[in-house]
Design goal:
The structure holds five protein chains of five kinds. By secondary structure, chain B is α/β, with parallel strands linked by helices. Helix content of chain B is 39%, strand content 21%. Chain B contains twelve helices and 15 strands. In chain B, helix 1 links the parallel strand 1 and strand 2. The radius of gyration of chain B is 20 Å and the shape is globular. The longest helix of chain D is centred in the N-terminal third of the chain and has 32 residues, at 2-33. Chain E contains 18 helices and two strands. A two-stranded antiparallel sheet of chain E has the order 1-2. In chain E, helix 16 (345-378) packs antiparallel against helix 18. The two termini of chain E are 15 Å apart. Residues 7-16 of chain E have low confidence and may be disordered. Classes of the chains: A alpha/beta, B alpha/beta, C alpha/beta, D mainly alpha, E mainly alpha. Chains in contact: A-C, A-D, A-E, B-D, B-E, C-E, D-E. The structure holds adenosine-5'-triphosphate (2 copies) and magnesium ion (2 copies). Residues 42-43, 85 of chain C line the site of one magnesium ion (MG). Residues 11, 14, 16, 34, 36-42, 82 of chain A line the site of one adenosine-5'-triphosphate (ATP).
């Protein structure tokens, strides 16, 4: 469903992505691993067009590289950025409502459903989202993106800054999303979670994909782990 | 060929250009006539336009440019601030650069002090000053027995206060029975809505309003009055200045009066023709009649002196008289203030020559003779040796 | 005397009570960690201590002096300084300048405009020391906004201690760091802790257990437990509220 | 006395509503895009001039619709090809852009329509009195003005508070990119808002032109007052702008009606101040047109978030 | 690690301190040489004097906006009041030297900028505190209000401000210093050069002081400032005073130069001029406003000789700078300088040149367009003739030329952007 071919990306003069290739199937959960600063976030950003991509990105067979981001989103790609970007002046509920792309066609997910799932959000449903704690913001962004009924959702560091209990909760949410038939591309640092929920893992190094396989394969491949993940 | 340059330092661009451009065009139009009749002592008169954006400091820069360009005569009219700067600068320049004297011919800055306590040998004023205009205006009002209550409304700055003060003093002297039922000041060019003032005038029961307002301040004031059905006439200094007629339309008819040396229906066929010609050629009205007077006197002085040197011309111009379409005018030697008859006119519809391409124009209703306009001066002129 | 002593501290935002009657004593030279679930009020707690918000009620004593209700700069001048959960530096100024700015006040050159900054010896020296301590000498002239994330976090800590405070609050100093970076950060924090009282908020239990002398657990505005890492690790309430079953 | 009170109130409300019409577009643009549009008054001027020129061919009512549409389209173009480029450089750059734009528009207007005023007037039948009170007329046109401005307020309030578009734009103000990631076309949204705000200014021009006269200086003199309204009302608050407009309108008209001067006050207390002296002659009436600015400074000192604003600017 | 970073690290090694003096020596040399270049041309001196005033004015404004992040619409208040103070002092000198005794009889006119500076600083001190609570829009608006109010007051109190005609004095009074007679603009030049140099140096030095550094900090992140022990408001207030003082100093220079000051000098238009000069020159570079002051002053005083659309051109130039060169002319110069220093110039120059060419073409196209519109509505304009354009506005080809020029510019601009992207 998503095919990335020879993707390059730059920040000013620095060449960050150096020919990234990978593909994802329908309903798959894929984790994108790698050390800090190898360019995982940049990969998802260039898929969304936030960083100008060079190379080919196809979604459901259609070339989306270079499209404005709203059109990409309209094609069914959801994105949860790593710095959360909640809308601080809107209320929690309004934040969720803005996730809806088309008000006339109700989607799979409902506002109430998320409020049930995260009592913290329910408590603050009508206060401005700017006052939420770091963790609450994270819950809100994932929920907000889901409101738009994406077919593939890319989540950048979903468990960053979360309490251990909540990390578990987010893990469950991700599994639930997967069960609902949404494909997931997970950008993660914490090996354990990624290994638990994903079908396949990709490891990045030097701006390229250096390993591709199942979690089990990665677990066994000590060389790769040593070289590309641990320090 | 050698020319005599007269530099106009006035706003030629920006929001005030509407005041400077007509003067520029008028000067150029009249210069053509003068050049066709032999020019200034045989030389062609050339009008140089210099844009000062009505800013005194910028005017000084432009003055310096003019001087470097060999200009010995400058003229200006818009803004007493600029006039004040020019008088000072010309005075100092002439003092510091003997042999390169510059004359300043003022065609519209009416602050009385310029020909009284601040009078300067190098400054000649071709417009009646504010007090003279008020003298003429009050003479007209004094002759109108129906006026018992007068309302004063003026802009809140030195000129507006001068107008108000002169009106109060002169009315008191000429018609002690007239009651001043209001004396309002409003900030310069800040009021968008004059209806509250008009309400006030209305409830004061005034028979007449006197105002020195200019620009939008007079247009909006009279417009508000018309909309409110206020019938009192407005006796003004600048009721016919550019744009007023267009904006007021029938709202100004029989309502707005102006005291000036100009009015829209010249009896002199020669002038009537010239006025039409000028509109055709430049798109501007003949509003600044005094510019024609100024150039004519300039020419006469040059011819009399037999020279185009500024010092000679200044000497010749002192006390000079000139026959104009309105009768004889005289440049008083004591203070370099022109002495001239004035006219009260009122806006009317269906005029033979309409101002600004409309059918409206100012129709002469009274002539105030030179003797009734003139005022003594406190000037103690310091003349060069 | 305890470095920080907090009595009955509460904070309401409108009807919501975010901090509900917290009592806490932090001993001098102690490293004290505050942990708790998201939204428990840890950042708010720090905001109250550092004067960003006034408390709704309660008292805060810094080395015996009452500081609640004072403005942040007054509190800072009395020796309490804090870092932020999200990096909060002067983006267009160089790394060195960021730190030096934090030093002027202490060097007695706070509002000086008659002497070049380069001539304010004390501030320059201090800034160089701090720069060395946080290991950013090489990036001295780089605008802070262009720094890599981890370096920015280090700078954040550097600015916090540069002003000479001896009570330092760090809000999630290792958030978003990789393992190596975290190790470096731990070392830095250890160094910082020398001769200072430290309070940190952290979700990374590895960091917490490694650094903290004592830990307080904040849950929905209340401290449910305070104790040594060992005590906390074994506290059933903490497990339930925060750590979950397979505690770190 | 009653007469003065009634008229001052009517005048104050009318002037206030005119101010509101002018400032509503600015408030809209400011609250949604964070752009303090210095050229707003220039778009207002364009509205008046367009209506004047169109009106000669189409008559007043079609011009009332067409002129704002034209101004709106122009505004949209300005956003698309100018403001959008500048957006990335922050709010000061945007402000500078509109500052320069004001210059350019004002000059272009002078070039096209000349340096003196044009004869833009309301249709003759609207000059008839709607009613006459104490011998003073209140024209139909003034009634129309009041009606239109109230309609405008209601429509805008609905748009801002009750529609998703309002939400989207408020969200885009802080995280534009993110709104795009959610599948909303942010650039088009901004273009629309800016265009709409300018169209509102244009509408105000169509209405205000005949009342306040249509001349090249009309933008420059009104510009600052509009800002006062927006700030006093509370940045970005539509209700705030509404109340602030009325407040300013009423204060100004009532002050004009009061003759008390500094000298009166002092002399009442036994001092002996020359009523024609510089200080003594200052009266409420002379200060009236300055009250907006006095109010502005006071508000910013004592209540920086304005009458109804949520945030401090 | 990115190249930018490593380049910056390279640079940070160490800098010879003498290098810092070079620009000042050059600046002084230029000031000393100019009179010989323009000998006998008093218009040039008049303009140079105005430029000197505007340089100080624009730089003082940039202390607020560029360095402190405070956008002001009332900066002319300091300029104007400083000018008034200096003028009153000049009048006092005149009166006193007539009598030949008293304090003022011993004060030289060349010292007037000091009076202006004190006045400007005092005014800022008295007014500033309530204004400096916030930066941003609130500050911009409150200064707008202040400007309007002071300008109105200027008209209301003629005894202090001289009414519309203003107050005027004579600079050739009191003791002479250095034999400077101050009669001609060429004499005044030395006075201007001295004060411009002093003020520019002082303002530059200010940026190097702790307070100058803190002013950048308060611009970048006022909230954080509190937590390193500063009240942002205090810093803003002190910048405000400093900026007001230098604004007043410029006013003092103006008083001597023009020998007249009118209430208009307090208003919105001169305040806007300061903003215009600073923005055209560039807010982010210290010398930006100097460049801006030179360019804007020349455009203001000279352009109107050639065309009646001069203000339009000023507006268009300003717009294109905001759009295409957001860091101003100074920023552009700085970019070239940095590239040259980094040995990068050769590679980046083609991009810049073609970018400049593109903007140039667009501007020329616009000029043609404007001039034709002008001809269509007003008849001939001199500027069109200066450019050798004798268009018949009705003829199609003139309009076509304009369109083609603009289109060409846009195409080149596009291509340039692409080129730069590829290079990056
Ligand atoms: N806006 C930017 N400008 C310049 N360089 C950047 C920018 N954002 C990221 N980089 C650099 O690009 C590289 C890759 O960044 P990216 O955010 O993709 O890393 P990541 O793998 O997601 O790591 P992290 O764990 O930090 O999120 C890093 O070296 C980073 O310093
Ligand atoms: N200004 C405010 N107004 C209203 N509620 C607020 C405000 N600031 C914080 N809150 C609420 O107070 C609670 C505590 O927030 P705080 O940021 O202190 O949490 P935290 O413990 O730091 O969480 P995290 O670990 O996720 O950062 C949250 O529920 C938050 O929504
Ligand atoms: Mg990342
Ligand atoms: Mg927190």
């Amino acid at each position: 469903m998503l095919e990335v071919n020879d993707l390059h990306a730059y920040y000013g003069k620095s060449h960050i992505l150096n020919g990234v290739n990978f593909a994802m199937q329908e309903g798959e959960v894929v984790a994108l691993l790698g050390r800090n600063g190898v360019g995982r976030s940049t990969t998802v950003k260039s898929i969304m067009g936030e960083v100008p991509p060079q190379g080919s990105i196809r979604f459901r067979g259609e070339e989306i590289a270079g499209m404005p981001n709203h059109r990409i989103a309209r094609r069914g790609l959801g994105y949860v950025p790593e710095d959360r970007d909640i809308f601080p002046t809107l209320t929690v509920r309004q934040n969720l409502e803005l996730g809806i792309k088309n008000t006339r066609k109700p989607g799979k997910w409902k506002v109430e459903q998320f409020l049930d799932m995260f009592p913290n959000l329910a408590r603050r449903a009508d206060s401005p989202a700017g006052v939420l704690s770091g963790g609450e913001k994270q819950m809100l962004t994932i929920s907000r993106t889901l409101m738009g009924d994406p077919e593939l959702i890319m989540i950048d560091e979903p468990t960053e800054g979360l309490a251990p209990l909540i990390v578990k909760q987010i893990g469950e949410l991700i599994s639930e999303i997967a069960k609902a038939g949404v494909s997931i591309l997970l950008v993660e640092q914490k090996l354990s979670i990624a290994m638990d929920i994903s079908h396949r893992v990709l490891v990045m190094g030097h701006g390229q994909i250096v390993f591709e396989g199942t979690p089990e394969e990665l677990r066994e491949d000590e060389a790769t782990r040593k070289e590309w993940l641990e320090v | 060929a050698e020319t005599v340059k007269l530099a106009l330092i006035d706003p030629l661009t920006g929001p005030m250009a509407g005041a400077g451009q007509p003067a520029f065009e008028h000067l150029k139009f009249e210069a053509k006539r003068i050049n066709a009749n032999g020019g200034i002592n045989g030389k062609d008169l050339e009008i140089v336009g210099l844009d000062n954006k009505v800013n005194p400091q910028e005017s000084l820069v432009q003055l310096q440019k003019a001087i470097d360009d060999g200009v010995q005569f400058v003229t200006q009219g818009n803004g007493s601030s600029v006039a004040s700067a020019l008088i000072g600068a010309v005075e100092k320049h002439n003092q510091r650069n003997p042999g390169k004297e510059v004359l300043y011919l003022n065609y519209a800055a009416v602050d009385p002090s310029f020909t009284n306590e601040r009078c300067s040998y190098w400054h000649f004023r071709f417009d009646a000053n504010a007090d003279m205009k008020m003298n003429a205006l009050t003479t007209y009002i004094a002759n109108n027995e129906d006026i018992k209550k007068v309302y004063l409304i003026n802009q809140d700055y030195s000129f507006g206060h001068a107008v108000s003060k002169a009106a109060r003093e002169m009315l008191k002297e000429k018609r002690p029975d007239i009651e001043i039922v209001g004396n309002d000041f409003h900030p310069l060019a800040k009021v968008k809505d004059f209806t509250p003032y008009v309400s006030k005038i209305q409830s004061s029961g005034a028979d007449a309003v006197i105002s020195g307002n200019w620009g939008q301040d007079i247009t909006l004031l009279v417009k508000a009055a018309a909309e409110f059905g206020l019938d009192a006439p407005f006796y003004t200094y600048y009721g016919a200045s550019s744009g007023v007629v267009t904006q007021l339309g029938d709202k100004g008819v029989d309502r707005i009066y102006q005291i000036n040396e100009y009015y829209g229906d010249f009896e002199d066929p020669e002038m009537a023709k010239r006025q039409v010609e000028m509109y055709k050629e430049t798109g501007w009205d003949f509003y600044y009649l005094r510019l024609s007077t100024m150039l004519d006197m300039f020419k006469k002085a040059a011819d009399k002196a037999g020279s185009t040197d500024s010092v000679e011309i200044a000497k010749a111009m002192e006390g000079m008289t000139l026959e104009t379409t309105n009768g004889e005018v005289m440049m008083r030697a004591e203070d370099h203030q022109i002495q001239l008859p004035m006219f009260m006119s009122v806006m009317q519809d269906d005029m033979e020559y309409g101002a600004e391409g409309t059918d409206y124009n100012f129709h002469k209703v009274a002539r105030i003779e030179r003797e009734d306009v003139t005022l003594p001066t406190t000037c103690r002129m310091r003349r060069p040796k | 005397m305890s470095a920080l002593s907090i009595k009955g501290l509460t904070k309401n935002f409108g009807p919501a009570e975010v901090i509900c009657g917290v009592d806490l004593d932090v001993a001098e030279n102690e490293v004290h960690a505050v942990i708790g679930p998201n939204g428990a009020g840890k950042s708010t707690f720090f905001n109250l201590l550092s004067g960003a918000f006034p408390p709704s009620s309660g008292e805060i004593y810094l080395k015996g002096e009452r500081i609640d209700g004072l403005s942040p700069e007054k509190i800072q001048q009395r020796g309490l300084s804090r870092s932020f959960q999200v990096s909060n530096v002067f983006g267009n100024l160089s790394v060195f300048e960021n730190i030096r700015c934090a030093c002027f006040k202490q060097s007695g050159a706070g509002y000086v405009f008659w002497r070049p900054a380069g001539k304010v010896r004390a501030a320059n020296q201090r800034a160089d020391e701090v720069l060395e301590m946080i290991g950013l000498q090489a990036l001295r002239d780089v605008p802070a906004g262009a720094l890599p994330y981890a370096s920015q976090r280090a700078l954040e800590i550097g600015m916090t201690i540069a002003g000479g405070a001896d009570v330092v609050l760090l809000d999630e100093p290792t958030a978003g760091m990789s393992n190596t970076e975290t190790t470096q950060a731990i070392n830095l924090i250890r160094q910082v802790a020398q001769g200072r009282t430290l309070m940190i908020v952290e979700h990374d239990m590895g960091v917490v257990f490694e650094l903290a002398d004592r830990i307080s657990v904040l849950v929905y505005g209340k401290i449910i437990a305070t104790g040594t890492p060992e005590e906390i690790r074994n506290d059933p309430r903490v497990k339930e509220a925060y750590l979950g079953e397979e505690a770190a | 006395m009653l007469e003065i009170v009634i008229f001052s109130t009517l005048n104050g409300i009318l002037y206030g509503l005119l101010l509101f019409m002018l400032s509503s577009g600015l408030t809209l643009i400011f609250s949604m895009m964070g752009v303090l549009n210095f050229a707003h008054a220039s778009f207002y001027m364009l509205g008046a001039y367009f209506a004047y020129t169109l009106g000669m061919h189409t008559g007043f009512w079609p011009a009332l619709i067409l002129a704002p549409l034209l101004v709106g389209a122009l505004g949209a173009l300005v956003e698309r090809f100018g403001l959008r480029r500048v957006h990335a450089n922050g709010h000061v750059a945007e402000l500078l852009f509109t500052f320069g734009l004001a210059y350019v528009i004002d000059e272009l207007v002078q070039m096209m329509w000349g340096t003196v005023a044009v004869a833009y007037r309301e249709p003759a039948y609207m000059r008839e009195p709607l009613f006459t009170l104490f011998g003073t007329d209140y024209s139909i046109f003034r009634g129309v003005v009041i009606l239109i401005s109230i309609l405008m307020f209601v429509a805008l309030w609905y748009l801002l508070k009750k529609t998703r578009v309002g939400l989207m734009i408020r969200a885009a103000l802080t995280h534009g990119e993110m709104v795009g990631h959610l599948g909303h076309n942010v650039p088009r949204l901004f273009m629309g808002v800016f265009g709409f705000g300018c169209a509102l200014a244009g509408l105000a021009g169509v209405i205000g032109g005949p009342i306040m006269s249509t001349e090249p200086g009309m933008a420059a003199t009104l510009g600052p007052i509009v800002f006062v309204v927006v700030v006093v009302g509370g940045m970005g608050s539509l209700q705030g702008a509404f109340y602030a407009s009325l407040l300013i309108g009423l204060i100004q008209t009532f002050f004009v009606a009061v003759n008390a001067s500094v000298a009166d006050v002092f002399n009442a207390m036994g001092a002996n101040l020359d009523p024609y002296g510089e200080l003594g002659r200052i009266s409420l009436a002379t200060l009236a047109p300055m009250t907006p600015f006095i109010l502005l400074v006071l508000i910013l000192i004592f209540r920086p978030r304005g009458l109804m604003g949520e945030l401090e600017p | 690690m990115s190249q930018d970073l490593s380049a910056a690290m390279q640079r940070s090694k160490s800098r010879p301190s003498l290098r810092g003096l070079v620009p000042w020596v050059v600046f002084a040399a230029v000031l000393l040489l100019l009179p010989f270049v323009f000998q006998g041309n008093s218009t040039a001196f008049t303009l140079l004097n105005v430029i000197g005033i505007n340089i100080v004015f624009a730089l003082s404004y940039n202390m607020l906006l560029g360095q402190g992040g405070m956008l002001s619409f009332g900066h002319a208040v300091f300029f104007g009041l400083g000018s008034y103070a200096a003028m009153h002092a000049m009048i006092a000198i005149d009166d006193a030297s007539y009598a030949g005794e008293g304090f003022w009889a011993h004060v030289p006119v060349v010292g007037m900028p000091v009076i202006g500076m004190i006045a400007g600083g005092l005014v800022a001190l008295v007014l500033g505190w309530p204004f400096c609570r916030r930066a941003g829009t609130a500050f911009a608006m409150i200064t707008l209000g202040l400007g309007e109010m002071v300008a109105a007051a200027g008209q209301m109190f003629p005894s202090l401000f001289g009414g519309e005609a203003g107050i005027y004095g004579n600079r050739m009074v009191g003791p002479q210093w250095f034999g400077l007679e101050l009669a001609q603009s060429a004499d005044v030049y030395w006075f201007m050069a001295f004060w411009t140099f002093v003020a520019v140096f002082a303002m530059w030095a200010f940026t190097r002081t702790p307070l100058g550094r803190m002013s950048n900090a308060v611009r970048d992140n006022p909230d954080r400032l509190q937590f390193i022990g500063y009240q942002p408001r205090n810093i803003r207030f002190m910048i405000f005073i400093a900026s007001g003082s230098f604004g007043g100093l410029a006013g003092g220079m103006a008083a001597v130069n023009y020998e007249i000051i009118t209430p208009e000098a307090l208003g919105l238009i001169p305040s806007g001029l300061a903003l215009l000069m600073a923005a055209v020159g560039g807010l982010g570079v210290f010398y930006g406003p100097i460049v801006g002051a030179i360019v804007v002053t020349l455009m203001n005083s000279m352009l109107s000789d050639y065309t009646d659309a001069s203000i339009l051109y000023v507006g268009l130039v300003f717009l294109s700078i905001v759009m295409f060169a957001p860091r101003g002319l100074g920023g552009g110069i700085e970019q070239v300088r940095v590239a040259w220093r980094d040995g990068d110039l050769g590679r980046r120059l083609p991009g810049w040149l073609s970018g400049t060419l593109a903007v140039g073409l667009i501007i020329v196209g616009m000029v043609v367009l404007v001039e034709m519109m002008f001809q269509a509505t007003h008849g001939d304009d001199e500027f069109a003739q200066v450019l050798g354009m004798e268009f018949d506005a009705a003829a199609l080809w003139g309009w076509l030329t304009a369109a083609v020029l603009v289109a060409l510019g846009v195409v080149i601009k596009r291509a340039t952007n692409k080129l730069r992207e590829d290079q990056a």
